[in-house]
Amino acid sequence: MAELNLKLQGGHSTSALCVDAKADGTEIISGGEAGEICVWNKDGSLKHKLSTETEDCTSIFISKTKECLFYAALGNAVKLFDTRNLQSTVETYQFNEEEINQVVSDEKENYLAACDDSGEVKIISLQEKRLYKTLRRKHTNICATVCFRKCKPWEVFTGGMDCNLIHWDFSRPKCLNQFNMQELQDAPSDLGAYMVNPPFVHHLAMSPDGKFLASALENGFVSVFDASRKNIAEICTLHAHTQGVSQVSFVSPSKFLSAGNDCVIASWDLAKMNQGNVSNEHPETNGHTSPIHSRNSEITENCKLAELQHTSKINWMRHFSQSENNFVIVADQTTDLVVLPVLV
Q1: How many C-beta atoms surround the C-beta of residue 194 within 10 A?
Q2: Whole-angstrom Cα distance, residue 119 to residue 142?
Q3: In the list 48, 155, 206, 217, which could disulfide-bond 39, CB 3.0-4.6 Å?
Q4: Burial (CB count <10 Å: 0-12, 13-18, 19+), residue 145
Q5: What pLDDT digit, counting tens, does each position of 253-276 carry?
Q6: CA 115 to CA 103: how far, in whole Å?
Q7: Residues of the chain above pLDDT 90, percent
Q8: What does the alpha-carbon distance between residue 153 and residue 303 come to, in Å, rounded to a whole number?
Q9: Please, which residues have CB within 8 angstroms of residue 324's CB and are 6 or more apart in sequence?
């Protein structure tokens, strides 16, 4: 698996939409159009394939606590599968009314979150196998992504096509905070991508230690929040891509990857954020954009480690490590998946 540009071929007949992998890359599972689900061996060969021939498979989440089990979003249902027998479903959770965009679990896998096109998020109790809470009336458009907060078992972050990032306590349920990325963004007029593309929130990722929250935005930026405090606050905006950012994925507490519609995978190190003369203070959106823009430009230059040019727009990516080497598995607009080494 350590070779360059390893392709996973012979599985999907159309575009691969999503992918997940075990932390060591020993198993990779991808989902695609027409409900195709492929399970891959660590050498890249196809192990199992399921064609449901119904709804697209839009999200895959491999269980970290139960061997051989994974969750797949198929239309408005979340289905639990066992890789040893894909022909039968272990469980089906059908609580969403519209197509699900992402399904994730908390660290202990007590709860599952599924966000959908209606803007709602369903929180499912996996122990009781029932709907626990519904988060609604905050997103006014598609909810594209959901992320559980580290070490805070009752909190999730959601983002969507209304440009809103929302922080929830789902036990009550209650909105704790809401960020309109259009108001938060520092966007000088010379940045053409912003003028054309609004800052839809496509994807969210939290660092392993819970310190940072990264958000992938349609305007080509990555907004980074300080999640170590009770109420999160934006730290900076990284000028990451020339087109929309589709994915963010943390490699370590400070290092993460971003991928976009410009076919670029960029690696970042937030530990380098305050090198040089960059202020440690959190910027305030006060109408004086030039100092903020200058600060964000300096942070972007400090933190950016490398760029990797891919051949197609990236739908989903998942980082894993083997023998102290870092890799990313990429699902793009082609029928193949590819494993690439990343420098972080």
Answers
A1: 21
A2: 5
A3: 48
A4: buried
A5: 999 999 999 999 999 999 999 876
A6: 7
A7: 78
A8: 30
A9: none
Is the pLDDT at 130 greater than 60? The verdict is yes
Strands 233-239 and 221-226: antiparallel
- DSSP per-residue string spanning 26-57: S-EEEEEGGGEEEEE-TTS-EEEEEE--SS-E
Q: In what order do the strands lie in the sheet with 121-125?
A: 100-105, 111-116, 121-125, 130-135
Which range is least confidently modeled, 55-69, 100-114, 185-199, 241-255? 185-199
Q: Which helix (H) or strand (E) holds 157?
A: strand 155-160
* pLDDT band at residue 52 under the 50/70/90 scheme: confident
Residue-wise over 284-323: b if at least 16 C-beta within 10 A, else e?
Answer: eeeeebeebbebbbbbbebbbeeebebeebbbbbbbbeee
DSSP characters for 263-280? SEEEEEEGGGTT-TT---
Widest CA span in the chain: 59
Q: What tokens were used for 245?
A: 């950012």
Find out whether 21 and 31 touch, Cβ atoms under 8 Å: no
Q: Are 263 and 311 in contact (CB under 8 A)?
A: yes
Report the side by side order of strands in the sheet with 245-250: 245-250, 255-260, 264-269, 304-309
Q: Residue 113 has what pLDDT?
A: 98
Cβ-based neighbours of 170, under 8 Å, separated by 6 or more: 111, 113, 121, 123, 132, 133, 135, 154, 155, 156
Burial 60-89 (b: 16+ CB within 10 A, else e): bbbbeeeeebbbbbbbbbbbbbbbeebeeb
Contact 312, 334 (CB under 8 A): yes
Record the pTM.
0.91
- N residues, the chain: 344
Q: How far apart are CA 71 and CA 236, in angstroms?
A: 34
Q: Are 287 and 303 in contact (CB under 8 A)?
A: no
Count the Cβ atoms, other than its own, within 10 Å of residue 195. 12
